[in-house]
Amino acid sequence: MNAQRRYDQDHCQPEICNVEGEAAIIGTILVNNDAYQLVAGMLQPMHFSQSILGEVYEVMGDLIKKGQVAQPVTIKPFLPWDQNVSPDMTLGKMVIRACAQHSLPPAMLPQIAQMLVDLYKRRQIISVAEDMIRTAQNIETDGDPAKIGEKAISEISQALSDGDDIYGAVSFGAALDEALEATNKAYKGKKGTGIGYRFRPIEELIGPMCGGQLIILGGATKQGKSALAGQLAMGAASEGFPVWFYSGEMSHIELAMRESSRETNVTVNRQKRGKVTESDFERLMHFRNAHKDKQIYIQQKRLTLDQIEERVRYFVSKKGKGLVVIDHMGLIDRGKDEKKMADWEFGQIVTARLKQIARETDIPIIGCAQLKKNVFTDYKPTINEKFFHQLLAKKPRYSDLIGAIERDADHVLIPFRPVVFLKENEPSKFSDLYEVWKDLVDQNEDKAKIFLALSRESQWPRDVECGWHGSTTSFVDLGGMNAPELIKREVLENPMGLL
Predict the structure, then answer these.
(1) How far apart are CA 231 and CA 71, in angstroms?
(2) Contact residues for 296 (Cβ-Cβ < 8 A; gap 6+)
(3) How far apart are the first and last CA of the chain?
(4) Peptide bond preceding 461: is omega within 30 degrees of 0, i.e. cis?
(5) What is the pLDDT of residues 188-228, one digit of tens each?
(6) Which of 268, 227, 262, 221 lies closest to 247 in space, CA to CA?
């Protein structure tokens, strides 16, 4: 007796079988083969209460994995099509009826698949319990009741497992093997495992982005978190990784203009107004030709968490493992049960769910997040030179994020440009402080820092200095150079630090 036992379908109680759900899985996948990827890692043929439907699911999966089309006409040769599955129904009729009557929106399949897996485990437990009762009732005089219980416990653990040696677990030996293999690949390839993104300052802080990581990119308004997210996305795409970019604020046209401005130095404002020279247009055209095949897919329609999960799983199934960027988490639409939640409460649900998606799809996810309002000027200050220097010396912290969203993060990165806060506290031009303020603004206009405010695997808090080019909203790798004129020259020549 093992976890592959099948509960007798003829005696399957309705509450522990869901034939309609099984037919819905079959029908939906036959109508839309892409839906298979949403359940392939979760649902197995043995999970079907009707073994014949499990066979249909297995045949469909085999064809789809080979890149072939799974439809009734293509699976028919591999199945007992004319076999009766009920007194008045052949398998062929059941499959065709499933396509016609049970096809569902693909987004519903993971939920139904999990239900079928849970029902399968319940049937296994019932079967083990019935065997244990029969054995205990007919025990021999020299039988050991403890062994009956131990056997039942072992079989229940096996029934509840997801294919691992121990319920829900991967052995340490297997983990070590995979870790060593990843290190060996990185060594042979002369680069770290994970996703590269061609921006040294952040690589210096956290290294490559790895599957399963949730990286929160926090920032106050006008601090450049969206700009930095775009640079990281472009860098990952330039390294050959597919990128799915959820843009809750900017349209795909605005994003394309901003990314092209970094390399061409033709500002978004000039592009929008058509204030370009022939040379500008040639540079824009060259950028378009050089980058049109980059695998960046921009989702500009607002989505709920459920919809984001569906799109991310589909993205990974079609394009492979890459990078997902959510800009920003506060612009995710709320479901019916989430509409009345406070921002901090919903934020915690978002990060927990994104972390779960990252782990299950084995990809890194960047989630942009707002800092609390007035976090750097949360009191009525006395405007003087000391106050200006205090603003410049401020350091953002992970506790400045709205809610406790950092608890699910592997890294919290916060770009910081203190000159923004200097400008918000401009003194009167007739004040003695004005020249002091203006000198400080001029000195810091092209400066920025990126703080590693929290990390599960790197030393924190730490920060790196960067340059900032306002007209193209670009962070610049200084490479040890601090003079503003050198920063500007580097931006003009190679704004993203691309090789």
Answers:
(1) 42
(2) 233, 234, 237, 242, 243, 245
(3) 60
(4) yes
(5) 654 556 888 989 999 989 989 999 999 999 888 788 898 99
(6) 227
